[in-house]
Amino acid sequence: MKNRSPLLLLASQVWKNIVFQPGSKVLILFMNGLLIGFLIVGLLDLNEHQRQIHGFGEEVREKWENSPDKHPHRMAHYGYLVFREKFPLSYFDFGMDSYLGNVIFLEAHRQNTANFSEANLSNGLLRFGEISAGMILQILVPLLIFFWGYDLITRDRENGTLKILFSQGVEGLELVWGRVFGLFWVSLSLVGLPLLLGFAFLFLQPENELLRQSLIQYLVMTLAYLAYFLILSLVAVLVSAKSQSSKSSLTALIGFWLLFTLVLPKVSQVVGQSVFSNPSKIEFDSAVEEEIIQQGDSHNPNDPHYASLKDSLLQAHQVDSVHKLPFNYSGFVMREGERLSTETYLRHEEALLEIFQNQQKVIRIAAWADPFLAIKLSSMGLSGTDEAMYQYFKAQSEAYRYELAQTMNNLQIDLISNQIKSSSDPSARLTQDHWKGLPDFHQQFLSLGQVLSNQLSALFILGLWLLAGVLLSVFYSKRIKVV
């Protein structure tokens, strides 16, 4: 015992004083059970979601391929349903998943929104937040760390043991870090087993093609959470070292907790939306529609833009009627109209995404002053439940929609006679074998490099907070008052 480091002795003292208390044992067991329970619920929900998505996707594909013979443009309007899969780590931190749509109907000339989010289908309570293992780690565990750590130094000062410790040769830095490590070890008793089980749950998902990427992201996320708990342990001990009494220390730490978890996140969100206001869906759709109308109507043969296009085609092929062109003129017009409308939509969407990114920048700036925001952003990003992963799905859906529409237009151009005047003409119908040529939709996720790149700033902020805590511990350890 005499050869043990004072730092380890102080840390073990904190561990014993907290963990061996009957009330603390109950809290530790309860928190472990709560975390494990929500991990299991999240995993079951994820597996059920994936099972349903795959089943619906197979049903949609079967109906598409077995559609009766018809005109290809009618097939383009018949449309296709795509379903959003969840990333394998989404069971850990639900993030924005519950508020985002899961189904998009794809059709020609129109970009539809994603529908059937869990928030819209719920009874309304979900709008106040959905509890996940990540949410508990971000909000409830810090509260327990502050509750256990608020008097680690003030209590020694109040009962006179601080003077004894210093008289026995314990240095201020050893005292601070002994308390910090002890408090951090206690926090590990809350999260150690759940984090290990969360890692093991990745192997329980059927057909997990992203296992390697998920494991790496989970390890990075675990290190981020451990850094977060160490930062909170530092904050608790440093506030206790700086405070004159245990009461003032507890009051300050509760204030920090409210500021970190409630005030700053909400304020940053409101400021971002106020400074960079985004248009409503009606305003966005109206702006797109207005520009498309100005470009021309592909369904109107007398439209000036397409009349000019017709004259150019007739001149280029040296014919006096569209019926004499070597391809289906209506299909050509539909293809041109799809190209123009899609370019217009993507241009407006790019401007809208820039607004959303500016709103996120405000939140990321606030994260420099709030470790909770930093861990929340990195946890959502590494779990694959953030805005970036959702926008990646939407981009893939739009690319598939455009491919579907243009594939049908090309079939019309190449296979439908130019002499046919109506799509209802039986000779304008193509057999269902042609529908199988459209490849099925297969959702991709952001790569490991893209995910880590997106979360680099949040992880860097956690590192700076940890460094700042170390520097402050050196500074305040020399100024601890004995009385």
UniProtKB/TrEMBL annotation:
Superkingdom of this protein's organism: Bacteria
| Listed transmembrane segments | 26-44, 131-150, 183-204, 216-239, 245-264, 456-476
Q: What is the name listed in the Swiss-Prot or TrEMBL entry for this protein?
A: DUF3526 domain-containing protein
- Pfam families from the entry? ABC2_membrane_2, DUF3526
**Keyword Membrane assigned:** yes
Source organism per UniProt: Algoriphagus aestuariicola
Q: Lineage of the source organism? A: Bacteria, Pseudomonadati, Bacteroidota, Cytophagia, Cytophagales
Q: Which UniProt keywords apply?
A: Membrane, Transmembrane, Transmembrane helix
